[in-house]
Amino acid sequence: MNLFADIQALVLDCLQDMVTTGELPAGLALDNVTVAPPRDAAYGDMTTNAAMVLAKPAGMKPRDIAQTLAAHLIKDARITHAAVAGPGFVNLRLAPSVWQGVIAAALSKGIDFGRTTLGQGKRVHVAYVSANATGLLHVGDLRGAVFGCALASLLEFAGHDVTREYFINGSRGQGDTLARSVYLRYLEAQGQEVAFPEGTYSGDYLIAAGEALKEKVGDAYLGKGEQVWLRDVRAFAIDAMRDLIRADLKSLGVEMDVFCSEKSFGGSGQIEAAINDLNDKGLIYDGTLAPPKANEADDGEPRVQRLFRATAHGDDEDRLIKKSDGSWSNFAANIAYHHDKLQRGFDLLIDVMGADHVGHVKRRKAAVSALSEGQVPLDVIPTQLVKLFKDGQEFKMSKRAGTFASPRDVVDQVGRDVTRFVMLTRKHDTTLDFDVDKVMEQSRENPVFYVQYAHARGVSVLRKAGEAGIPVDDETLQSADLSQLDHEAELGLAAKLAEWPRLVETAARRNEPHRVAIYLNELAGTFHALWNKGHDVPSLRFVQDDPKVTTAKIALARATSVVIAAGLGILGVTPAQEMR
Description:
By secondary structure, this protein is an alpha/beta fold. Helix content is 48%, strand content 12%.
């Protein structure tokens, strides 16, 4: 049930009636007609922009259209008031029975209330985290992991068929550094005193890897040069890091359907296949690129290299594919990866990236546009930085990681649910300040606590009513006489519940799961306000002397808990059953 979609359908029907009666000319495009909550609730329950959208193409004054439309709308039993405001908005008031119907729908659907077929089963590939496997995830990766996981869940809730994938970036240079660092921990495990030269990784997280290497090879590498152990230790260390990364993701509740490594494209023929595809489209050529600014003083002649004509698909410049020494560029491997996704038949690709990869957006979009001939969209979503604060001071240090805070450090401090929710309280393209002290406070200023407290309060209503012998099973609540809910505060909460299906569709269309967190905070505020009014207005308390009234009020509390649980489920947060 999407009440806003239902009323929008009513508006469109009325506009068609106006065409039939000659009050509007035929052939008007109605695609941009919307129904939404007004900016100020004092104006009504919903508002439509129909008159202003249609005025110019109809050659009419917007207020004239609005007046006629209002006269048609008021004939519907769901509309109690239709008024023209401003330049031509039509503001609507809905009958109490409409809001009561929302409660019934939420109880009937349970946590599936708000689930939609918007995606029509389209296959969506969401790649997120995608960090290098030569080091621990850092707190910036944490934000991308939580965002990508929540976005995938949101898209599934909105009717898409979603695949979650971790693309493991390759870096031979960093792999060698990791191998040398693990070798030092191996020597340490053998009882030797070691020092970590500048540039190596000194975090405690490699201690276990060094001990595991000792168990595997014994003293075989002691006193031996790199030519003996570097290659094997590099492979061993990267595998060990992948296990640590998987463990960190698991601690966050982040799931992946597929792990794909950049290394798998080298020597497999996939890079060649992707580049040949572009070459067949006339998009690969031999040419020269301007040297990077740092090398402008170089007097050497520009070297001819293999290039992708990315400018033909919206990029600012053409891009290097094969270097003058014959090796493939990193971007070539990335093209092959996206070519592989397209071969797997996805209808939409989404890459969630760190803020340091913003410069890669246009080239990736150009590659996918070229490979799919503009048929498959790619949305590249960079997530901005996270700043950690404790005791009023920003901090980065972690004994485990060595020089930065890792996801496990944050989860150990505040818990998985808090971490995930806070990471989604801001839009992905804004810097997030994560204050460890504040997110643990039990106050209105802490959105995690505020939402969880609302859910726990709803659960407590059912629990206390059940203890008093009042039936609170879903079957009984679904048959409640919801006409008993007629106070503006109760209907206001029902109206907030009605926004949920629309919110899901809006957030899914825009790939913005933070909207779910914001909505849950608003819903919690509306529920807490009703609860607090009960202190001064006894008739608003959830348990009354009249069992019929009590059942209706408990149904409202249950519906609220259902929607909060559904929203938290999308965010990957477990709803609290009680607060301690």
